[in-house]
Amino acid sequence: DGGITQSPKYLFRKEGQNVTLSCEQNLNHDAMYWYRQDPGQGLRLIYYSQIVNDFQKGDIAEGYSVSREKKESFPLTVTSAQKNPTAFYLCASSIDSGNYEQYFGPGTRLTVT
Amino acid sequence: ILNVEQSPQSLHVQEGDSTNFTCSFPSSNFYALHWYRWETAKSPEALFVMTLNGDEKKKGRISATLNTKEGYSYLYIKGSQPEDSATYLCAFMNTGGFKTIFGAGTRLFVKA
């Protein structure tokens, strides 16, 4: 089955700890994205990657970091510098960064206390 | 700052009702408009990718129109069914880059 997976589904961390969210796709897509969803708001772009070894900041990149060492993988690290890390995080991919629909993973709900 | 607005925020209809909701986006530098359906406990799934002014797309009982000059798109659902209950997201892409700006969504509840 082709698809995009995120793990874990729920994640709990103490304030001050860095945490890495996993995102893997086997769709052979070049572009990958990380979004954050907060109640009452649209999905907001954190980082995106158009191709392996390349990534750009989205609208709310502060306090986050990413890597794209492999085409299939685009992990997101939520650092202790992120002021409000508790949120629902969605990863997506598309054929490339042009006008193609995005395929989404199931999401990770991160709670930081 | 690019702003994409969807209305209404939520909508309650009876089974069999037809309904529609709106996505408003900047009318300049338009590149594409996407519609997604996001059911509870599932991932968002693409419904339509729209690029041309006047575009009309249809998938079963769901259709969408696009007006790029005035910056809006309508999504229509004919004869709503309980399985149509979901959040409908629109997403705007402009020619200035490849970022996608999402609206907050319209949450549709269809009562049997």
What does this 3D model show about the protein?
The complex is a heterodimer of chains A (113) and B (112). Chain A is mainly β and 113 residues long. Chain A contains no helices and 11 strands. In chain A, strands 2, 4, 5, 6, 9, 10 and 11 form a 7-stranded mixed β-sheet that branches. A 4-stranded antiparallel β-sheet of chain A has the order 1-3-8-7, with no helix packed on it. The termini of chain A are far apart. The mean pLDDT of chain A is 93. With 112 residues, chain B is mostly beta strands. In chain B, 0% of the residues lie in helices and 56% in strands. Chain B has strands at 5-7, 10-14, 19-24, 30-38, 45-50, 56-59, 62-67, 72-77, 86-94, 100-102, 106-111. In chain B, the strands form 2 sheets. In chain B, strands 2, 4, 5, 9, 10 and 11 form a 6-stranded mixed β-sheet that branches. Chain B has a 5-stranded antiparallel β-sheet with strand order 1-3-8-7-6, with no helix packed on it. Chain B starts with a strand and ends with a strand. The model of chain B has no long low-confidence stretch (mean pLDDT 93). Classes of the chains: A mainly beta (113), B mainly beta (112). The interface between A and B is medium-sized, with 26 and 25 residues.
Short characterization:
The complex is a heterodimer of chains A (113) and B (112). Chain A has 113 residues and is mainly β.
Question: How are the SSEs placed, and which strands pair?
Answer:
The complex is a heterodimer of chains A (113) and B (112).
Chain A: E1 4-7, E2 10-13, E3 19-25, E4 31-37, E5 44-51, E6 54-57, E7 64-66, E8 76-78, E9 87-94, E10 103-104, E11 108-112
Parallel strand pairs in A: 2-11
Antiparallel strand pairs in A: 1-3, 3-8, 4-5, 4-9, 5-6, 7-8, 9-10, 9-11
Chain B: E1 5-7, E2 10-14, E3 19-24, E4 30-38, E5 45-50, E6 56-59, E7 62-67, E8 72-77, E9 86-94, E10 100-102, E11 106-111
Parallel strand pairs in B: 2-11
Antiparallel strand pairs in B: 1-3, 3-8, 4-5, 4-9, 6-7, 7-8, 9-10, 9-11
